[in-house]
Amino acid sequence: MSFYVPRGPSRIVCLTEEPTEILYALGEQDRIVGISAYTERPAEAKRDKPVVCAFVDGSVKKISALKPDLVIGFSDIQAELAKKLIANNLNVLIFNQRSIQEILAVVMNVGRLVGRPLEAESLVGGYMRNIEAAQARAAKRGVRPLVYFEEWDEPIISGIAWVSELIEIAGGKDIFSDRAHGKLARERFVQSQEVIDAAPELMLASWCGKPFDLAAVQARPGWSSIPALANDAVYEISSCDILQPGPACLTTGLAAIEAHIGRVAGRL
Does the N terminus or the C terminus of the chain have fewer Cβ atoms within 10 A? Predict the structure, then answer.
């Protein structure tokens, strides 16, 4: 028998967008053999890689047929899919990042997995400089609008930790920052009256998996009195830009939040 020094997984299935985006950014896209249907970044991934799963579930048969030596997923939401894949003797790695610091850690960990720690460190450095620049612009602006971020409408769910942190970085005050670190969606449920009472000056929305319905929000009882609605300061951010806990939210997502906060701050 002969053995060799492992060089990291060579056939990777990514159950969510963020490991795909990270691997492309590291120049290691050739290791990817399957991706999620919700992958939007980079654009060439969906053109070049077979789709093997949605978000909550996927085809164990399709994934197994690709003979992956590693499957990378995200969060407790994919626990059942992960369980089925493990039962089929596949190696599964589930990340559970919820904060910006944890997102940066995932970039580093994926880089180490594929033997690109220095390149991963360079990526992380770039994301940190981008964040620091946004913080400096926010400090110069001075005015910090009250911001409400809505992740879902029925029940109403406020923003998750990394979204709340990005709002603060971009110069806003998340009205539900106290519950943003709840890892389960039910920990971030809010009541309609709570939003009315908080009187946010800016509303940002990204309904995961479906388009934002402004008319439905405007029709909610009592919401016409909310400054954000009264002053037409309600904006949608694409879920692929803000609800993927990877490079997208730290770049495009942060830029979108900052632009909307800057627009509202200029009126205050």
Answer: N
